[in-house]
Structure of 3-oxoacyl-[acyl-carrier-protein] reductase:
Amino acid sequence: MSKQADGLEGLRVVVTAGAGGIGLAIVRHLAACGARVFTCDVAEPALAQLAQSHPEVGAIRADVSSEADVARLFEAAERQLGGLDALINNAGIAGPTGAVEDLDPQEWRRCVDICLTGQFLCTRLAVPLLKAAGGGAIVNMSSAAGRHGYAFRTPYSSAKFGVIGFTQSLAKELGPAGIRVNAILPGIVEGPRMEGVIRARAEQVGVSYERMEATYLERISLRRMVTQHDIALSVAFLLSEGGRNISGQSLSVDGNVETL
């Protein structure tokens, strides 16, 4: 096992939205490092695939914006893991793309409910378990949009800015209990979700997909997208011995996004 994974063997971790995308990359990597992982997702076919490929990972269907679902998630996780050492608040959606005067308030609420309130609902149930374990770690997934304003993506950007405030507040509140709290800010992550975002933005401003993709890459110093595995490696570092004194931080894993 690499030194980056020091301290992950046997770690009891809940990862939200872990059956696909970045969440699945996190689940796979933590499990490979010897952590005991429990996850949830709303996509039942993806959960079924996860059960086949990683039978050692516990999983249930849960929507993080639902208090009842989150309660079931943590009851099931505690039964299987016997406690908790880390929470990865990964669940999120892209939300609507459009001018602010055209946005549907219901779509705004749904985006904020999942991307921000869902993290609160999970954290409030995780913290007593982390305290009982003598401390631990929380990693909240924000975004480069939580550092930069994002025209035509105001619900998403607003929620992700909120995650930063949530993270910094929790770091101060929970530090005395030995609980580290950090945020990861992915940039443009390779995959179907980002393709959909670029396509929607291209349609919004009336240019081709290729032109809009080039525009996104021109705003990144390294001129490349990051991968889901890049994010998983960063999560593992924050949970590892290497991250034992890192708290209250916003870690951009984005190739240095200069603007959005």
